[in-house]
Amino acid sequence: MLLPVNITLGAVLVALLLAAAGVAAAAHLGRHREILIAGVRAAVQLTVVAFAIHWVVGSVPLLLAFLTLMFAVAVRTAGRRMTANRTWWWAAAPIAAGVVPVVSALLLTGLVPVKGIALIPVTGILIGGALTATVLGGRRALDELTARRGEVEAGMALGLPDRDARLEIARPAASDALLPGLDQTRTVGLVTLPGAFVGMLLGGASPVQAGAVQLFVLVALMAVQAVAVSVVLELVARGKVHREALDLGP
Question: What is the pTM of this model?
Fold first, then answer.
């Protein structure tokens, strides 16, 4: 076992969390309170999930309910990060568009069985990747439209449709959301050994099996994130996801 679950681990976690919040406060980053809350929430949520999985893995209805809950939380989180208005629920589209086809293909090909012990972690990784890509892509696109509003309006004045004018400005910025996944894939094994690889090794798998699983995770994540960014960019360009100041057209 990599880390023993004991008082020492708890003390180190508390110290690291306080250090993270302290550095953020000292550097005036404005996120120290969020760091503390996020750390406490993570501890509570992981504790609940650890116990819940014992019940979920043996029941398909409970498994589906748990996966639906994961999706709903991801949509709420991504939507609220992009915009605080009524358009937040559109975050469901990019996350679902990225995750559902990949998970469906895995189930249909038999690579992942309909069992909680396999489906929950795989789906969770993919939903998490889609969430991150949606937030980064959506926020970067909306920020760019805010900063370059005049260029968008100029494009419209020249006869470009509203969607096309927004796309010309927002597309390069939104594509930056793919960079973390690309960099992780490019440097895997050279800079870090990601969680799936380490987890497989600790579980007794051979290095070859662990490498194959990690490669699958990285490639699947790139596919999910590419779809998520493409869909959220389209939603922003069409004005479905917007900030009130960006409502440039019907």
Answer: 0.80
Distance CA 81, CA 199 (A): 30
Beta bridge partners of 230: none
> How many other C-beta atoms are found inside a 10 Å radius of the C-beta of residue 122?
20
List, in sequence order, every residue forming a beta bridge with 188; answer none if it has no partner. 192
C-alpha closest to that of 143 among 183, 180, 172, 163: 172
Task: Output the DSSP codes for 17-67.
Answer: HHHHHHHHHHTT-S-HHHHHHHHHHHHHHHHHHHHHHHHHTT-HHHHHHHH
Residue 175's Cβ-side half-sphere holds a number of Cα atoms within 13 Å equal to 6
Could you tell me the sign of the dihedral formed by the alpha carbons of 134, 178, 191, 118, in that order? positive
Contact 197, 214 (CB under 8 A): yes
| Residuewise pLDDT in 10s, the chain (250 residues) | 556 778 888 899 999 999 999 999 999 888 889 999 999 999 898 888 777 777 777 778 888 888 999 999 999 999 998 887 888 899 999 999 999 999 998 888 888 877 767 788 889 999 999 999 999 999 999 999 988 888 888 888 888 888 899 888 999 999 999 998 888 888 887 776 766 666 666 666 677 877 787 888 888 999 999 999 999 999 999 989 888 654 444 4
Residue 164 token pair: 């096309």
Bridge partners of 192? 188
